[in-house]
Amino acid sequence: MRKDSPYTWQNNLIVVLMNLTVFPLLIIMTIIGIFMSPPAFILFKIFSRLETMRIIRIFVWIYGRGWLAIIKPFTRFQTEGLRKGDIQPPCIVVPNHLSFFDTYFMGALPITNLCFAIRSWPFKMAWYRPFMRLARYLDVEDMAWEESFESCKRELRNGATLIFFPEAHRSRDGKLGRFYSGAFKVSVATGVPIIPLCITGTGKLYPPGRWFFKPAKVCLKALPAVAPSEFSGPLGHLAMRKFVKALMAEQIEKMR
Amino acid sequence: MRMTNEEIIQIINNSLIKEFELDSKKMIPEAMLYDDLELDSLDRVDMVIVLENAFKFKIKEEKEIRDIRTLGDIHNFVINKIRDIERAS
Is there a contact between B33 and B68 (Cβ–Cβ < 8 Å)? Predict the structure, then answer.
């Protein structure tokens, strides 16, 4: 069961202050991002000569860092295993999923070339959609499995780090939900390791069904890479999925 | 020994629950694979291998597999396949 802060007037005041701060700042950051990205893109293109997709992924990562700065005064934020060099691309990061804002916390990863493999609905947000399309994020819900598999292989070949939320849905009770197999199938087929990423606290910060923030302690812990070579056979990816889920469940229990 | 239809259904349900973490309460014949059991297209591919392993036969009927929509369709497909094998042997 989710434990919330007691309803004292001081706590309520902090909640009000938090929501009067975080929402406007997030909207302002988003609007500035939308209007500043074309000139920033041109400058990046001239000086870095990176592909469009890479530049937009850097922008999204910077946006995530901005989110971390906005939320910082109201959260105790801890990371483990996310220092520079801790995660070596190409790899597949599989976080558990508690909140809409989990994706924003991916700004804490020490890598900018992140490719989200996600469901269709985030692509429906008009203000994010152009960036998501330009960043070539993968809409794995609308794609046939063979197509998304080929896209994942291409991204990994190009040195990207894939992010799959294996539960596909946000957990409503804090427990890990059913894991889908896509990330693990890609891992076993390509030989690229899985990085389990355990998240706690975002379900208290902004859980599904609640439309305002509450202060929370948010922890992100990346576990050591799991090599796919341990899992062979036509159903090796299912065994890997069960193994990774068990690791994450154990770690999340410790982090609570 | 000849398996009854109930035993076959039990093996199918248990295999799917174990491999795909399905909710046993949702395992009714009318359950739609995509909408109710929330299986995806990859699960459908894996399901064939899971059933092959559970019953030690090969599934080559691609069209029949493509037409499967509900858990009851899987039950009927496997029962018919086992009965065909029994008749042939």
Answer: yes
So what's the architecture of A9-255 in CATH? 3-Layer(aba) Sandwich (3.40)
Q: Which residues of A touch B50 (CB under 8 A)?
A: 235
Token pair for A148: 């998304």
Cα–Cα distance between B65 and B49 in angstroms, integer?
12
pLDDT (tens digit per residue) in A144-177 = 889 999 999 999 999 999 999 999 999 998 899 9
Q: Quick check: B32 contacting A, CB < 8 Å?
A: no
- Residue B39 identity (one-letter amino acid): L
Across the range B22-30, mean pLDDT stands at 96
Strands (E), A72-228: 75-80, 92-95, 114-118, 138-139, 161-164, 194-200, 216-222
The structure tokens 């739609």 sit at B32
Angle at A188 between CA A187 and CA A193, to 5 degrees: 45
CATH topology of domain B5-88: 1.10.1200
Contact A178 B38 (CB under 8 A): yes
